[in-house]
Amino acid sequence: MPNNDNRLRIAIDVRALTTQPTPSGIALYIRQLLHCLAHHKTEIALIPVAHTRGHYPKDLEAIWPLHVVAAIPGVPWQQITLPCWARRKHLSYLHGPAFTLPICAGIPTIVTIHDLTPYIYSGTMRPSTYKYLRIMLPISLKLATKIFADSPEVASDLIRIFKVSQNRIYVIPPPIDTPVISNIALGNPYLIHPYLLAIATQEPRKRLPELLQAFDVLATHQHDLHLVILGKHDSDTGRITTTLSSLTNKGRVHVLGYVTQEEKWRWLRNADALISASIYEGFLMPAIEAMQLRVPVISEPVGILRAAPKGIYYPYLVADASTLVSAVATIRHGPLEHKTTRLSNAHNWAMQFQCHNIGRLYLDAL
Questions:
Q1: CATH no. for residue 315?
Q2: Does the N-terminal or the C-terminal CB of the chain have fewer CB atoms within 10 Å?
Q3: Structural domain range at position 104
Q4: Beta strands in the chain (DSSP E)
Q5: pLDDT tens digits, residue range 101-124?
Q6: What's this model's pTM, rounded to 2 decimal places?
Q7: In this predicted model, what pLDDT tens digit does every residue of 315-341 receive, in sequence order?
C-alpha cells in the first residue's frame, strides 16, 4: 500500500554494523550516521536493513528498528535480495554506505565513497577486496542518483579518475562527536608517559614502519618520549614487527593493536600529540577526534587536512625525519601561547564535523 507519511523514506544497508561486536571503520561510520539522523526524525524515516540481526546495537534498535531480510549473505544478498525488498517499500532512496550498490536497484540510490584506495594505492588492499571494488565501484558510481564523498579530496578524485559530474557529488564528512573531555580518565593503564599516539590499521598505506624509523631518530633528541600505536593487525603487520626489532629505541615503542573506543579516547586525551604517517586518506578521522579534544596533530597533508586552514596542525614529511623532530620540539618546548592558540583554532575548525552539523548536511543533499 502507498505510504501516507510525508517524510523521506531511506533504507540503508547496515550489514557491516551487524557483523562487528565493537564497530570500527565502515561499521563505526554507519553507527554514527544513524545516531546523527535520529535528531531529524520529523524529516526522515530511516530503515536500517541487513541479512541478520547479529550485533546490531540495542541503543539504535530503540531509535531505528532493524529490518532483517534473511537470505544468503554477501553479494547475492546485496544484488538480489536487497533490491527486490527495496522496490516493495515505497522508498525515497536506497543508501549503500560502503562504496557499492545493487546493480538493478530500480529506485533512486545514494552511494558513499570514503576513499579511492583501489585506484590510488591498490597494492595496499586484500586481493579479493581489490578485485570486487575495481568491478563494482565504477558501476555503482554510474548508477547512483547521488554520490556522497567523505572529503573535498575524495570528491576531486572522483571527478579526476571517473569523470563524475560535479553536480552529482555531495561532500558529507563522517560525523564525529568526541566524549566530553572531563569524562575521559587521566593517564593510561600502562603508565606510559609522555607519548606520541598513532591510530592506524596495520596496512601499507599507513606507513607505520616508516614512522617507526622516524621515531627512532626522534628518540635520540627526546629521551623520555614513547610511541604508542593502536589499530588492528593487517597486511603490514609482519613488516612492522621486523622494523621494530631493528630499532635502537624499540623499548619505547608500544604496538598495542586493537583497543575499545573507551580505551582509544583515554589514550588520545592523554597523548602529547597524535601522529599520522599515512600516504593517502579519504578523511583521517583520528585527526579530527584529536583536534576536538585539543590534542596537537602531526601529519602529512592528507584527507580532510588538505582543506584545513593553515597552521592548525604540525606538518610532517615521512621521508624527512627532521620534520618530525622539529614538530615535536615545537609542541613540547615552544611558546605556550602559540600552542594554545593553535589548539584553540584547530578545535574550533574540527567542531564543524559534529553530529548535528553532518545530519543537516545529509538531509540538505537529498
A1: 3.40.50.2000
A2: N
A3: 8-177+354-364
A4: 8-13, 44-50, 67-68, 93-96, 109-113, 146-149, 169-171, 195-199, 226-230, 253-257, 273-276, 297-299, 314-315
A5: 999 999 999 999 999 988 888 766
A6: 0.91
A7: 999 889 999 999 999 999 999 999 999
